[in-house]
Amino acid sequence: MREGIKMGQRNYGAEELAEVYRLMGDKTRLKMAEKLSKDYYTISDFVKLFGISQPLASQHLKKLKKAFLLKEKRVGKLIYYKLNPNAKDFPLISLLLNPLKKSLSEPSVCDYPPADRIRKIAQ
C-alpha cells in the first residue's frame, strides 16, 4: 500500500504534495487562488488588484489552469476564472488557503495609523 496523506478520495504521495506546494508557493498565485475560491475574476481584475502586469497575471492563471484547478466562463470577449471545486487537488488547495482566508479577513497591523500600530503590536 502506498504511503501518503489522504484528502477526500485522494491519497497524496510526497511527490504529488511537493508539486502542489510548488504551484501554490508563489505569494501572488496563492492570493489569486484565495480570490478565485470565492468568485469569478478576469486577468484585468488581477492586474488592478495586485498591481501586476497583464502578462504576469496571465502566466499565473495559465499555471493554475494547467493544473486543472480552474473553471472558466466566457462572456463576450472576456474570460472569467474561478477555482474548480471538483478539481482533484481542490481539497488540498482549500486546506492551504484556509489560513490565508483568515489572515486576509482580519485587519493587518499596517491598516492602522502609525500610533495605533505600536499599541496593536504591543498587545
Automatic annotation (TrEMBL):
Entry annotated with the keyword Transcription: yes
SMART domains: HTH_ARSR
Keyword DNA-binding: yes
Keywords, sorted A to Z: DNA-binding, Transcription, Transcription regulation
Domain HTH arsR-type: start-end pairs: 9-108
Matches recorded under SUPFAM superfamilies: Winged helix' DNA-binding domain (SSF46785)
InterPro entries named in the record: HTH_ArsR_DNA-bd_dom (IPR001845), HTH_MetalResp_TranReg (IPR051081), WH-like_DNA-bd_sf (IPR036388), WH_DNA-bd_sf (IPR036390)
Protein name: HTH arsR-type domain-containing protein
Source taxon at top rank: Bacteria
GO molecular function, a single term: DNA-binding transcription factor activity
